[in-house]
Write a structure and sequence with these properties.
Bound molecules: iron/sulfur cluster
CATH architecture: Alpha-Beta Barrel
Number of helices: 11
Number of strands: 9
CATH class: Alpha Beta
Number of domains: 1
Distance between the termini: 23 Å
Shape: globular
């Protein structure tokens, strides 16, 4: 376990008495920002969304069309009960695959349910309840974790999420923010403001829901000053956790088109280590670090192609931090 930052594994063991692994699920959601023809989606977002390795069963030639999109795109037949029942069945299958994978690799550890792909609050409250209930009915889980956008969290949805605190030890929402700088949010075409992130965190906190914030380091146009601005925002808002990503260019995205034209560059390992240390030193030491680099599958990753694997990166980061006598939070 790592000592220079607030390591996620250590945090889970301290809190729950054992390691806990997530079963990452695809609930058949889409994203309001992707399917709205006027907003167009984030420039780095590809058509397959994030998913765990054991859920990548449809990637070959797979163009995603969520069941819920049928409710929004008038050219498609509306989602009916059969479609929705199929989503519930896919939850069962996803849990089964996740359990089989994790039980083989990490026996005798805890499990959490993680709705991971796309915007997992983008549906009616009743559908959300049925989908979350279905996943939680498959076993005993430590946490319920829902990944979403800051502007897709109505009060009734937050109420619903809060109600699961009776069923699991804690409920988390993972919010994509990526940067604390409005110009960067515009560049990434996030389609929301810093203020909407701050508002979402406050409303979640009012209902005792814990928050993890996704950040990208190495956004074109961002230097030390912008990274420190982002760290300042994280210090002020103080989510319980952050996930740090190095900018990745994924084939078939708008960012990829820009990359091919030479309009943008991405940080290499040395640059990401520099950015990460700068950010870590300026955020509070009690914020849990759930992730320190992106892990896009190699066959979809256009750049950086020479970025090392996670083990090598973390060892290198730790070594540089030792050399600099740097610790998370030592410059707050
Ligand atoms: S919010 Fe997430 S799913 Fe939606 S367009 Fe952006 S990256 Fe893609």
């Amino acid at each position: 376990m790592w000592e220079r930052w607030n390591d996620y594994t250590r945090y889970l063991i301290n809190r729950y008495g054992r390691k806990v692994y997530r079963i990452g699920l695809d609930g058949g959601f889409s994203c309001p920002h992707r399917i709205n023809k006027y907003s167009g989606g984030c420039i780095y977002c590809d058509s397959q969304g994030a998913s765990s390795v054991y859920q990548r069963v449809k990637e070959s030639g797979y163009t995603r069309q969520s069941h819920f999109e049928k409710n929004i795109d008038e050219s498609l037949p509306a989602e009916d009960e059969t479609d929705f029942e199929q989503r519930l069945v896919e939850i069962d299958e996803g849990v089964k695959r996740g359990k089989a994978y994790l039980d083989r690799r990490f026996p005798d550890t805890g499990r959490s349910i993680y709705f991971q792909s796309y915007t997992n609050t983008y549906d009616s409250v009743e559908h959300l309840r049925l989908l979350y209930d279905r996943a939680l009915a498959t076993g005993d889980y430590t946490e319920l974790i829902i990944s979403t956008r800051p502007d897709c969290l109505s009060d009734p949805v937050i109420e619903l999420l809060s109600s699961y605190r009776e069923k699991v030890s804690s409920v988390w929402v993972e919010l994509g923010l990526q940067s604390g700088n409005e110009d960067s949010l515009k560049f990434l075409n996030r389609g929301h403001t810093v203020a909407s992130y701050v508002d979402a965190v406050h409303r979640l906190r009012d209902k005792d829901i814990e928050v993890s914030t996704h950040m990208i380091l190495g956004i074109p146009g961002e230097g030390d000053r912008e990274i420190l601005n982002s760290a300042d925002l994280i210090r002020e808002v103080h989510p319980e956790a952050v996930k740090i990503h190095n900018l990745n260019v994924v084939a078939s995205t708008k960012l990829y088109e820009m990359y091919k034209k030479g309009e943008v560059d991405v940080p290499n390992m040395g640059e990401h280590i520099y950015n990460t240390i700068l950010f870590l030193r300026h955020i509070p030491e009690d914020i849990v670090i759930q992730r320190l680099m992106s892990e896009t599958p190699r066959h979809r990753l256009a750049a950086p192609r020479d970025f090392p694997d996670k083990g090598y990166f973390l060892t290198s980061l730790d070594r540089v931090m030792k050399t600099q006598n740097a610790m998370q939070g030592d410059r707050v």
